[in-house]
Amino acid sequence: MRTQVVIIGGGPSGLLLGQLLHRVGVEAVVLERKTRDYVLSRIRAGVLEQGMASLLKEAGVDARMRAEGLAHDGTLIAYEDAMFRVDFAKHTGQPVIVYGQTEVTRDLYDARAAAGAQTLFNVEDVVIDGADTDAVSVRFVVEGTEHQIECDFVAGCDGFHGVSRKTIPEDVRREYEKVYPFGWLGILSETPPVNHELIYANSPRGFALCSMRHANLSRYYVQCSMADTVSNWSDAQFWTELKRRLPAEVAEALITGPSIEKSIAPLRSFVTEPMRWGRLFLCGDAAHIVPPTGAKGLNTAASDVHYLYQGLKAWYADKDADGLDRYSERALARVWKAERFSWWFSSLMHRFPDQSDFDLRMQRAELDFLRSNDAAQKAMAENYVGLAY
Ligand code: APR
Ligand code: PHB
């Protein structure tokens, strides 16, 4: 079998790239290790930058996002007894769109099915052969039978634990990592959000976040120890802890209810360089991870997809290789800025186990500065709504 582009991984990166390529007549096959239902059961952040929203439009999958997504013109930051707002509209002229990653993925799967594009599920033992040659192919097993697809290019969209990154030889790859000494315990509840915009809180008991999916679906998080387990947290304990970390007026307004999902996620910053090796291109979580503070995971995946899509489009239209040759450099330049923002926002909002009194004063001074300084708020707003591609 032969195709133009093999896309490994049917998460948002792989699906978005596949859909964009389909619109310009480039044939791609998506190989996904799990099932569609499994992929759609994963709950991830839900804040889209304008760049991501524009890509969904270009891919023809923005109808539900436009109808159901919530445009947010700002966000709230709480610390000590203060709460202030960073106004995205005033500082950047742009909102972010609150629309769950699960919904983005569902829309992309539906569009892919409607287009008759090929997605193979339950794909095991993927091996990329000859990525650094002109004869690249991908081998894999489905239901015990081995298959091979020859192609022009491979897009490694298979997330942090995929095979694509590891296909790049160790002496070519350079990895940068920071693991944070805590996690986020998150719950989803069918209750109205406590506020119409997100609230990020730095409290002496640790970080908390009030987020949402829609008018009757809320997403809340509290910083927890990575030694903690979900079974240690009843719903009642979660709500009590969340309220203790929020300003009194917010805690009083909070409507609680049974959780419909509860999970603990680690926080990590990670980047691999380069993002291209021969005919293999890494996209999204396969190449980099950000801590969730600021919701840049999906958005950095989208900017990679943008650069790769532009490169592939120019190559197939005009045999112009410049976009592909510069893919790694362009994608990484933006990735590192999103890494910086996520690291900065995480450092600002969490309590660290080894934080000294001096460190705490620095955190407070930085929050005071952000609260009172227009230029600092503008810098935050520009990063939050997303830097230009
Ligand atoms: N073969 C085929 N598919 C694989 C393999 C493999 N060896 N390994 C992993 N996969 C699949 C996973 O099952 C998953 O569906 O690749 C997909 C990768 O999806 P994500 O992990 O969601 O990564 P990505 O598409 O880059 O999306 C980035 O999603 O993970 C979040 O926080 C992240 O929001 C960010 C966004
Ligand atoms: C979420 O809604 O899950 C969410 C929102 C904003 C973040 C992180 C997660 O910064």
Q: If you had to describe this structure to a student in words, what would you say it looks like?
A:
The protein has a domain at 5-50 and 100-177 and 268-345: FAD/NAD(P)-binding domain (3-Layer(bba) Sandwich). It has an 8-stranded mixed β-sheet, with helices on both faces. Strands 8-2-1-12-19-18 form a 6-stranded mixed β-sheet, with helices on one face. A 3-stranded antiparallel β-sheet has the order 3-7-4. Strand 14 and strand 15 form a beta hairpin. The protein has helices at 12-23, 36-40, 50-58, 63-68, 88-92, 101-114, 164-167, 235-244, 248-253, 297-318, 322-325, 327-349, 357-372, 374-385, and strands spanning 5-8, 28-31, 47-48, 70-72, 74-79, 82-87, 96-98, 119-120, 123-129, 137-142, 145-150, 153-156, 174-189, 199-203, 206-214, 217-224, 259-273, 276-277, 280-282, 288-289. It starts with a strand and ends with a helix. By secondary structure, it is an alpha+beta fold. The longest helix is centred in the last third of the chain and has 23 residues, at 327-349. It contains 14 helices and 20 strands. The protein is globular. Helix 1 packs parallel to helix 10 (297-318) and helix 10 packs antiparallel against helix 12 (327-349). Residues 8-14, 31-34, 39, 44, 101, 123, 126, 157-159, 161-163, 284-285, 297-298, 301 line the site of adenosine-5-diphosphoribose.
